[in-house]
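Q: How would the structure tokens look for this protein?
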Amino acid sequence: MTDTPGPDPAHLEALFNQAPCGYLVTDDVGRITAVNDTFVSWTGHSRSHLLGSTLQSLMPVGDQILYSTHCIPQLGITGAVSEIAVEIIGADGQRRAALLSASRSPASGEEPAAVRVVIFSAHERRMFEKELVAALRAAEESEARRAEAEKELHRLALHDALTGLPNRAGLKVRLDQLSVGGAAGTRRLAVLFIDLDHFKAVNDSLGHAAGDELLISVAQRLTSLAAGTNTVARLSGDEFVVVGAFAGPTEATALAAGLLEVLRTPMQIEGLEIVSSASIGVAVAEDDGESLEDLIRRADIAMYRAKELGRGRWELHEPAETDPTVDRLRALGELRRGIREGALRVHYQPQIDLRTGRTRGVEALVRWQHPARGLLPPSEFITMAEESGLVRPLGAWVLGETLKQADNWRRQGRPSSALEFAVNLSARQLNDPELVPMVEAGLGLRGLDPALLLLEITETALMADPTAALASLTALKNLGVGLAVDDFGTGYSSLTYLKKFPIDELKIDRSFINGLGSDSGDSAIVGSCVDLAHAVGIRAVAEGVETSGQVNMLKAMGCDLAQGYHFARPLPAGLLKEWLDANGGG
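A: Here is the predicted structure in token form.
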């Protein structure tokens, strides 16, 4: 085992000389035996002059007496003196204020007693103390600011920045310790879910600043009526909730009715009088096991029902009610699986040339072979597919399947190979940049004449964004395919737009065909639509034709084509072939 090396003498000497204060060593009578560079520099005396002289000799007479009669005796008795105010006379004769501290080490063996003296410049000491105090104060202020910043961040994390109300996280924190079923004896927790009616119209017409002002006013009104034992929170946008313990549904719905009245009082927003209204859903807990999130979800469902029933009202959610959101998600999952696993079917409905009685073409209509509900028509799932985005893969499958069927008939050399195949496009598909390449690729894969494909777009889809629609239709028309406007008469398109769009057919909506012969207004509309189509040089097609009387009227009006149950229902490809053979179209 080796000995631990001691301190390096050269290092100790450097520390002694470079100390930030004057450092001297004297004997018991004050004779200087060692002095550091700092003291030499501060006083201007040479080291040779200082060594051997007494410390007292560097002081004025009064301080000499103080040091000799007070400090030296105290060092002998207690071994230390602390911060004695003295003056040190420098080589230039100037007096320098100083603070003197000293400690005495008694003699030991051959080592004589020694007094170690530390001298601070009083000015530097005061500066040091000021800096130290300032540093401490800054540290305290920084800590206070940090604590305040943490407190503010915590507050912001739990509160809505605009209204100051608790947000969803803040609401949960407030109610975490509250049992849902029996928090207050026989009282039960309830949630009122409040959604403003037509809030988007305020934002769009007056701007977001006005919308924010409206939200702040609403928050204040809700708080003024519902605060106290209840908690008012803003979840997002124009959605607020009131959560509290109630005696039962009657008390909770009474508060909802009161909130509706308060919100109906006119508000002054940017100098305009605005009357707001809201739809409120109410959900009351049935047992201790129901979570706050479950209650909010149920209240949300009831709120949407209030919207559907006319807005400006409240609705109470019954626990036994089915959840349309859950049902919709389940149905979407089933549809997605159906597309993937081949549960879709395409049926074809013939289109008849009213002048010749021959079949001119067929419209492809998708069906869903649901595992539990059987064969479903498009009305059962197309809207859901549109809203979820599933309509794109669904539409692509229908187009591909239709082109495949057209190719099969062409290869069989049947007369039906010359039929025109109509396929519906959704609004989402029309705005899809991949639509044109998909159609082009599908036609190329089957080697089909593009003129045999007719793509149908609803009038409402065209009028949603006429400029974008025109670009998409022009690109499709350049492929050589035909284009039709479906459900005409429901989208308020003008003659100007009809002339702009490169369309080949105008399909009159079935709602007008139903009234032919019984409703003079419908008859006039259908006649006008036929005339309008011919005026712009396109074909007029009637949908939903079910009687021979309707057929005769359409012929008299000069309508070109018709389809409907009077001729044939939508049929699978095999049955359509039989129908075509039997009716001279195959």
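The CA atoms of residues 179 and 374 lie 45 Å apart.

The radius of gyration is 47 Å.

Upvote if useful.
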